[in-house]
Every structure is written in structure tokens, then in C-alpha cells.
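User: ok so my PI wants both of these folded by tonight, can you help

Assistant: No problem, let's get them done. Here's the first:
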Amino acid sequence: MKLLRCRCWLLLWMLAPGWLSLPAAQTGRLVEKIEIRHVGPPAVSDDLVRANIHIKIGDPYNPDATTDDIRALKATGYFRDIRVEADRTENGGVKLIYVVQGQPVLSEVRFEGNRKYSNTKLLKMVKSKIGEPLDDYKLFSDAQEIKKLYEKAGYQQTKIEPKQSINEQLGRATVTFDIKEAPKVRIMEVQFVGAQAFSQRKLRKQLKTRRHWMFSWLTGSGKLKEEQK
């Protein structure tokens, strides 16, 4: 009898790890509770969050389904970060906690490293507005517009990088455009190597790119532009 009891305990010990390693949906555990937890000021109501969650109380717990919920919530554009935590309840079920962080509101725009253009001039190029939710795509576009401004003036190698500083508790963000101005590139000479059928002067007339000369400040010539390379 004692030997049989030992064998039973051994069998349970061998099976237990396998049971624990099964996908949650196969263990029969059901979702007993769904909780919404906000990081910082709520971007939307709990009702809107729940409206985009497909898992319902009483459903078998399936991690793949929570991944689908995260995608659905991300697609709304209201959230910067989303994660789902799963806790075991006293009854052996599952409590799901959807932790959501809303997009912070842009509270300030700064510029660092700019000497060629004033803050006022650069701010006119920025489409991201104070008081609106932070938009990474808009910030990228803003950086590109500032870069074009520098390129047009002949500062081809200037680098623009938008850096974000986010206060999660207040739900606010400060964006600093870090500008590394490069020296102005001037075209002093344009030469055609191996050209024999036409003169250098005639070939140069076919180009939009012009050499720098004493009246370049008036004509705008002598600047290296990306579209003219």
C-alpha cells in the first residue's frame, strides 16, 4: 500500500510540470475579472478601453487574444504604451489587467544648437502644436522641414533630431529639436572630366547648379542643393 502511494505521488510530480507548461487556454482557466489601470492621466474613459477589448469575462484565457486586444487599442491612436498582466485568482481563474498609458500632451517646444535661424523662425516650420497629443510622425515631419530650410541655405550636412522628455505622471511632454549645424557648402568650380565634344562653358549652362561668385548673395547661386546633385 505504501509502495502504491509513493508511485502515485511520483506520477503526480512528473505530470505537474507538463500541466503548468500547457497554454493557458488548454488548462481550462477562465477569465474571471478584467481591470483597467491607467499610467498618468487617463487619455480616454474605461468604457472606451473596454469597447476595444474582445476578451470577455467567462472566456477561456488565451494569451494570443490579449495580443489582438493590444493591437486594437494601439490602432485607436490614443495610447503610447499598452501591456496586459495576467494574475491567478483564488478560484483558479484569471484576472486580466490592461495597463494603458495615453499619449502625452505637448507642453513645450525647444531648440538647441541653432545659430543660423532664431527660435521664432524655426517654430513657424513646426506643425506639432502645444496642447495637442504628441505625434511621433508629426515630429519626424517637423525635423525634415527644418532640415530642408537649412539645405536651401547651403547647410547640407546639418542634422536635426527631435528629443522627447515625458512626464508620465502629469501626462505632458517637452520636445527639443537638437540641431547640429554644419558649415555652409559652396560650389567654387564645376568641371566635366573627359568632355571633348562640347566646351566646359556650354555644358555648365545645362546645369541648374551654379558656381559661387561675387553676386551669389543676390542670385542664390553657388549653394549645393540635394535636388541638384
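One down. Here's the second:
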Amino acid sequence: MGKADFLSPKAIANRIKSKGLQKLRWYCQMCQKQCRDENGFKCHCMAESHQRQLLLASEDPNKFMDYFSDEFKRDFIELLSRRFGTKRVHNNIIYNEYINFREHYIDRDPETIRRQEEQARKKKQDLDDEERSAKFIEEQVRRGRGGKEDEVRGGEGTRGRGGEESPVFTELKRESEEEKVAFNMGASASIAGPSKPRYGGP
């Protein structure tokens, strides 16, 4: 029997079920595998991989219990210190928050591991692309500034910091009351002298 079609009702129901939290009673601590329901848990318990894990655990049960206890203690205290700080709270509240975090179960499914590796590879490639484009833009900016410096060298005026032309400041004076003073407020800051009045008609 093949996999259900992506848009079939069964596949949609499976995706909806897998989004939420599952019951802890169907979580296998030895294999660190979450089962969806009682039937899935029963099938998992009969699986060969689960039987191998049980054999490994039966050789030294204290080692496994200590490992899981230490892991729980470490994560519990970390959650307590980060989330609640120095406030007094019931430990049941922290425990419920700890078990609500779906990702603290390790998913060792080969498909999931392959997907995570693929995502990491894609993220690294995207970062490499971003670095390449940033270097390209930086090079373009440097070339653009180099072109401006050549223009400034050919023009008049004194050169200031960064190769930009520094303006020459003069005192504003009008020779007569009838003359108008014009200012150029554009990007190229050059000071315009007094403009001559225009006489005559068209």
C-alpha cells in the first residue's frame, strides 16, 4: 500500500495530528520516539529497534536512568532560571511548560535528519550568496567613488577628506539694494554670487 496523496483527507488529518503535542503516555523514553496513539505505541514496542534499545538498557539500567534524570534536571533548572528568574513559582507550572515544549524530544527519524542537513546546507549556501553579493556591491561602491575622485581632480576647488570637494566660503555682500541674491541649494554645494537683475521685456 503506497503513501496517501498529499491532498487526500487522510494525509491532511495526519499533518494536523502531527502539528500538536501528543500524550506523554505514548512517548518511548528509551528510543526517544513520540507515537501518535495507542496502536502506534504498541507497534513501536514490538519493533526490532525498540527491542535492541531494551537489551542495551537492561545491561546497565542505572546508567540510562541517571542520564535521563540528569538531562531532565539540567533542562528543568535552565527553564526555571531563564523563564522565571528569581520569582517564586510552583514546580508543576515549570514542569507543564517543560513538557509542552515539543522540540525537547529528539527526533532521530532518518528523514527528519536528512531534511535538517539539507536546510543547514541551503542556509550556508544562502549566506555564501549574500557574502558574494555584499562584496560585489562594495566593489561597485568603491569603483563609483573612484570615478567621482577623478572628476573632482579635474574640477576646481580644494579637496577635503574622502576625496570630496570642499566649498569655498565667502562673505555675503550686495553692491546695491536693487540686486537680488540667489542661493544654489542643490547636491553640488557651490555658492552663487549676486545675480544681475534682468531688464527688458520679451
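The radius of gyration is 37 Å. Strands lie at 27-28, 33-34, 158-159, 165-166, 180-181, 194-195. Good luck tonight!
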